[in-house]
Write a structure and sequence with these properties.
Belongs to the ELIP/psbS family. Keywords: Chloroplast, Membrane, Plastid, Thylakoid, Transmembrane, Transmembrane helix. The protein is built from seven helices and no strands. By secondary structure, the protein is mainly alpha-helical. It folds into two domains: about 40 residues, no CATH class; about 100 residues, no CATH class. Helix 1 crosses helix 2, helix 4 packs antiparallel against helix 5 and helix 4 packs across helix 7.
Length: about 160
C-alpha cells in the first residue's frame, strides 16, 4: 500500500496517470508471489546411492544405524552378564569383552551394510511399531544407556546390580 501511494504521489510530477505510473514504476520482483511450486514430488522409489562413501558419510544411512544396533546389543549384553556374573562393564571388558566386541561389531556391521549396498533402506521395510524411526530412537537410548551404565559403575566403584 505504501508503494502504491508513493507511486501515485509521483504521477502528478511526471504528468502520468495513475495507471501508467503503476506500470512504469511497479517492479514485479517486489510483489511476493503466492504461486505454489507444482513440480514438487516425493517418490519413495527414488534412486539411492550405493557408494561406500555415501553410505558411511556423516549424514549417511549407515553410521547411526550401525552404532545404534551395536549399542542395543551391548547394553542388553552388559546388563545380562552383570545380572548373571555380577561383573561390571569394566570387568567384562577386561575378561575377554574386547574379542566379543570385535566379532559382534564385524558381524552386525556386515549385516547392516549388505542391504545398504544393494540399495535397500530401512525406511522402505518399516511398518507399524517396528519402524525405522523406532529403531533409531531405541539405538540412541541404548547409546545413552550404555554410557550412563559405565559412568554410574565407575562412580559407584562396582556393578550396578
Amino acid at each position: 500500500m505504501a508503494a502504491v501511494s508513493s507511486v501515485m504521489s509521483l504521477s502528478p510530477a511526471t504528468g502520468l496517470t495513475n495507471k501508467t505510473a503503476l506500470k512504469r514504476f511497479a517492479v514485479p520482483s517486489y510483489v511476493p508471489s503466492l504461486k505454489r511450486n507444482v513440480d514438487f514430488r516425493v517418490s519413495s522409489m527414488s534412486k539411492v546411492s550405493t557408494n561406500f562413501g555415501d553410505i558411511l558419510a556423516f549424514g549417511g544411512p549407515g553410521p547411526e544405524r550401525i552404532n545404534g544396533r551395536l549399542a542395543m546389543i551391548g547394553f542388553v549384553t552388559a546388563i545380562g552378564v552383570e545380572l548373571a556374573n555380577g561383573q561390571d562393564v569394566f570387568a567384562q571388558i577386561q575378561n575377554g569383552g574386547i574379542q566379543w566386541f570385535i566379532v559382534t561389531s564385524a558381524l552386525l556391521s556386515a549385516a547392516s551394510l549388505i542391504p545398504l549396498f544393494k540399495g535397500v533402506r530401512a525406511e522402505s521395510k518399516s511398518n507399524g511399531v517396528f519402524s525405522s524411526d523406532a529403531e533409531l530412537w531405541n539405538g540412541r537410548f541404548a547409546m545413552l544407556g550404555l554410557i550412563a551404565l559405565a559412568v554410574t559403575e565407575y562412580v559407584k566403584g562396582g556393578a550396578l546390580v
